[in-house]
Amino acid sequence: MNSSLALDALTTAQPIKDDITQHEISALKTRFNLADAHTHQAQSPSQQQIIQNLPALWYQAESQTQYQSEQAFIETFFTFHGQRHALKRRDEIYLVYAASIAMHITATYLRKRNMSVGLIEPCFDNLHDLLKHMEVPMTPLPESIFADPAMVYSQLSQHAEGLDAIFLVDPNNPTGTSLFADGPEPFVEVARYCRDHGKLLILDFCFASFLLASGRKRVDAYQILDEMGTDYIVMEDTGKTWPLQDTKCATLMSSTRINPDIYSLVTSVLLNVSPFVLNVVTQYVRDSAQDQFASVRDLLDRNRAIARECLHGDFLNYLEPKVETSVAWFEIRRDGVTADALQAYLLTHEIYVLPGKYFYWSQPERGQKYIRLALARKPEDFAAAVQTIARALEVFNG
């Protein structure tokens, strides 16, 4: 089992999958599922108290209005994230039951206006697929153009001149890069460029909680955008942060000028998110505000350290992110070994990881040197998984 030819043979035996989600569905059947970034860790002691209080939260949802449940969540979530400026237009913060719904609404808006988009690469392939299915023209924007704050404006002038919109993910999934990691200057330059050139700025902040988990304060992005006069659509999420078993809520907000159009799309999709779900999620946000994110941060830190200790070496290179999120991004150091082949090999050991090709949506071959591991797992299960990977790689090395 110590040749790339053997690995390639394993790869060809695997059913072809169109996207990451199809891999994640398959991974749910596997003993060690390190594919999807959904939260599968156990509850902390204080979160267990929330679970014990579920009947009361149910009856609370019955006894108050939908609007009260919505506003309690909005106030709690945006205050916790330091995005208080958005609360000045709290009635124009729209709630949907999954971030993919917010993304679909955004893609519909772009398609109706025949807008072209510059989409960051790499990024989670769900964004690309939604835009592709809506037949929105896309151009890749390499992460590297945002690395130097002094060059962001000129780099965008070079890469985005003919585009109508710029779509960024921050922190990015899977790499952990962020416009805010070392201060707000890169983000300010992006907002300024979009304003000056009349481009719509679309921001996926679904991993933004991990800025807080890493000990940083979030800059009030909504204030920067409004004061700059930049048109924007921003989505945020709860499903990748707290162990909610997909009982989640996402938010969608846009600049004042385009808000009426976005609102019409939102109301064509759904009426409301369950008030019971909103009550539950609000309690989890409050819990993290009280423990300063310890229940989320400590588990991810522990699993990240285990992954680095067990897997970083001659075969895999752990890539340090700007912002530590709930995934780990590894580079394959072994010549001739593709991510597809390594994934297939590990699957023979009942381990499911994601190959990097899906994140490089315009150049899948560039992603063949990377794999992604999800960290939001019970520590004992995660440790067993990465130790199994390490033993499997030892066998491969002979």
From TrEMBL:
Protein name per its UniProtKB record: cysteine-S-conjugate beta-lyase
Family from the record: Belongs to the class-II pyridoxal-phosphate-dependent aminotransferase family. MalY/PatB cystathionine beta-lyase subfamily.
EC numbers: 4.4.1.13
Pfam families assigned: Aminotran_1_2 (PF00155)
Origin species: Pseudomonas eucalypticola
Aminotransferase class I/classII large domain residues: 69-388
UniProt cross-references to InterPro entries, sorted A to Z: Aminotransferase_I/II_large, Class-II_PLP-Dep_Aminotrans, PyrdxlP-dep_Trfase, PyrdxlP-dep_Trfase_major, PyrdxlP-dep_Trfase_small
Domain of life from the UniProt record: Bacteria
SUPFAM superfamilies according to UniProt: PLP-dependent transferases
UniProt-recorded Gene Ontology molecular function terms: cysteine-S-conjugate beta-lyase activity; pyridoxal phosphate binding; transaminase activity
Main EC class the enzyme belongs to: lyase
CC cofactor: pyridoxal 5'-phosphate
Annotated keywords: Aminotransferase, Lyase, Pyridoxal phosphate, Transferase
